[in-house]
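To close the chapter, one final illustration. This time we ask the reader to focus less on the individual chains and more on the assembly as a whole: which components sit near each other, and how the overall shape emerges from the parts.
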Amino acid sequence: MTLFTNRRRFLQSGAALGAALAMPSLARAQDKRELVIVSFAGQLQEPHQWLARQMEAKHPGLTIRLVPSESQDVVAQIKASQGYSPYDAMPNGEPPHLIAIRDSYILPLDPAAVPNATKAVPAFVAKSKGYGIPASYSLIGIAYNTALVKTPPTAWKDLWDPQYKGQIGIPRASSNLGLGFLVAAAKTFGGSETDLTVGWEKLKELNPKVGRSPSQLLQMLEREEIVMAPIWNNDAAGAADKGLPIAFVKPAPGPIAVISFMSAVKGTRYPELVNEWMNAILSPEYQQKAAGAPYYFGPTIEGVEVPEAARAYTPATPEEVAALQTVDWSAIAAKRGAIVEEFDRLFAS
Amino acid sequence: MLSRHSPEASAPLSPRGLSVARFLDGGGIWPAVPALVYLLVFMVAPIATLLTFGFVDIDRGTVGEGGFTLSHMVGVLSDPLVWRLTWRSFWIAVVSTSLTLIFAYPVAYAYGHLRGAARTLLLVAVMSPLLTSALVRTYAWIVILGGRRGLVNQTLLTLGLIERPLDILNTSTAVLIGMTQIHLPFMILPLLAVLSERDRSFEQASLNLGASQTVTFFRVTVPMSMPAIVAGFALVFAVSYTNFIVPQLLGGGNYSTIAVQVYEQTIVVLDWSRGAALATLLLSSCFVFVFAIVAAGNWLTRWSEVRR
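The assembled structure is written out below.
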């Protein structure tokens, strides 16, 4: 008997041998999974890193890659990928969250797969519109250089103190920070989300210097190019933690609270792992860690105690929570393109 | 085995056979095929896609059903903001390119008169900025120009020359300073090649005939280096006009150019059609300006030859 009776048998045997040799690597490929999650930049990424290491330990072969990025870059990449998104999950502030729902590149939440969702503050959950989970909230307040400002500001209108004219930094209106501050300016002087005219006039009146990002505004504060700027509480806390002469105030009538939602990206390869990730984000352990120094992310589940060190950055008392200002983002998100163009017409031309 | 070049194989070939033989022999475009394929895939196709996006509706990352439309291009061309920013891009490119020429010429001229180690050192000094990324050099300018703590303001304040820090960063001046320094090597290198290899006998003849050093420089040396001036001017103009990093970092958030607008529309506003229409405007106007520079250069070279 010959080993291979004919050419067909030979080819069949060869194919079987090849498949057998490939099997272990196929099995290994199934074990090796990579979850790609968009995260914050710098120090603010640490709570996500902590959670990622825990999930990796629980699932051998799983790697969680955190990509620090502005959500706007990510959205452009998701759009360009034509349904083959390179990301599995992403955090979005309220305006891009609404745009993501409209453009359907994030997935609705399956509450049964994320049991911790029942622990989240109902008012925050309602704002998610059924997509993703409310992961944290941050405040837009005022940061100032303590070496240059001897009397700290207490209210939004203090930014318009004539002695600081030309020395105030503002963010571009393309970011959540910039949109939030535009609304704060409008509301402080009698406008609203639907009537931004007075907000634009007041921004122009500041004769401001404009930063492209929160970190650029903080650098401008440090270099003493500006004395005050609207900024995120977390970014101000990070700068103060590094020893920079920067302090944060929650201006009257109240800082602006913006919720960050963590959502599964449409087309994710591992929806069950993303659900596990979102469930862990709503765990008391994660929320407590994210609320602690030096991150100070606002907790979104009941029963998380705000640590003493966070008092300067996060509301702790019921009165402070009641004073938080929210924005009707549905009126703003749809006009974002027009707002960015208006900003350039006023400040960049 | 017979070689194609052996006498035995020298029977006359038909015209088609001749061209095939030449092709296989390594003649014609054969050696350029890998480069052409590379350019086709990584340059022509992306640019064609980009230009197409400006003439169709794009909704949520996919091309809409409306087909060809001029509305985005008309929207861009009828927007006064776009024209103001195009003018700014042009103006900043012309001024920074002119400044680059003024700074580069003496360096290239000096190189031609240096010998030995000094010459090598100068060449290394000219080339070394190219070893670091333009981004790093731009950040260095932030440290130098930025605020009260920037090197410039700190020095001027310490010397008592100013009482309040000068506003340099986040202004046009900062963009001009950054662009001029960062693009300097692109102007020096073509000048250096031409000026160091020029025929000195023309200058000696001019001097022998009684012309002064100044007249000889402007009537003989400069016209001889005109091709390098034109090449450097066109190159630096193109990279300045389309530069995105320097205006973005040194101009601040309230400084925009057409290149910055392309980024804003594509990445931030996510209006890809308008972004593509702006990119088409940037690309085509840059092509026109560079063509004009080269045409002006040809005219000037002709004029200088007649005068010489």
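The CA atoms of residues 3 and 9 of chain B lie 7 Å apart. DSSP finds 14 helices and two strands in chain B. With these observations in hand, you are ready for the problems at the end of the chapter.
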